[in-house]
Amino acid sequence: MISIKSSKEIELMRKAGKIVALAHQQVSQAIRPGISTAELDAIAEKVIKNNGAIPSFKGKEGIKGSIFPATICASINNEVVHGIPDARVLREGDIISIDIGACMDGYHGDSAKTHPVEKISEEARILIEVTRQSFYEGIKYAKNNNRLSDISNAIQVFVETHGYSVVRDFVGHGIGKELQEEPQIPNFGKPGYGPRLASGMTLAIEPMVNIGDFRVRILPNNWTVVTADGSLSAHYEHTILITEEQPEILTKL
Ligand code: MG
Ligand code: MG
């Protein structure tokens, strides 16, 4: 069942969302060649805790009993999602996807964005822009009474029109008391299927887009997802609230 949030719950999700957005702002200002992903993680954790929230990802259980050890996911270049922050430093020309979740008084916000590290290739720049825009194409359909897969289809069509592919193995999700709730929200599929959207639903829409093939694999650390063909990948995510009109983006300042 997809939960419908009360106005009180939505207010808490707005708070969580603002803290996620603030953490993104601070992290993005720190992105430069020479900084490590562990340093970026520390920045996000400080923002979240200073605002009275809790990192949503830290301690989450993954495959084979693995536990996610950090506040952010930091995924560089061919890494799609779930990169673990460590001592690795960014270099000019890299692209880095930062995913941040925060929990405020029991309610989560979840948002991701891919950044350039100084000067990047034209190909990488377009990938980032198409990924971001595919989210906005998708949420044009995110309103009361539409079907869930209307969003999925709009994202896929936009991405594939630009010659890229959408990741199949990882999808968006409902969000609220749990970081991941029903429904699963694929970034692909035919329109007109799935549950009907209703005002008060809160969803994390998150296209993951590869320059090459859509297939991915998971590294031996049980977390980091990489493109199977080694091509670059980008990610864009916001937590949104379904309304009668255009959705409200909760993870923004
Ligand atoms: Mg996320
Ligand atoms: Mg998410």
Bound molecules: magnesium ion
CATH class: Alpha Beta
Assign the CATH architecture: Alpha-Beta Complex
Molecular shape = globular
Please give the share of residues in helix: 25-40%
Report the uncertain regions: none
Radius of gyration: 17 Å
N- and C-termini, Cα separation: 30 Å
The CATH superfamily is Creatinase/methionine aminopeptidase superfamily
Explain what you see:
The protein is α+β, with helices and mostly antiparallel strands. The chain has one domain (7-249): Creatinase/methionine aminopeptidase superfamily (Creatine Amidinohydrolase). The chain is built from 4 helices and 15 strands. A 5-stranded antiparallel sheet has the order 8-7-9-14-15. Strands 1, 2, 4 and 5 form a 4-stranded antiparallel sheet that branches. A 3-stranded antiparallel sheet has the order 3-12-11, with no helix packed on it. A hairpin with a 6-residue loop joins strand 7 and strand 8. Helix 1 (7-30) packs antiparallel against helix 2 (37-50) and helix 3 runs antiparallel to helix 4. The model has no long low-confidence stretch (mean pLDDT 98). The site of one magnesium ion has 6 residues, from strand 4 and strand 5. One magnesium ion (MG) binds at residues 110, 173, 204, 206, 237.
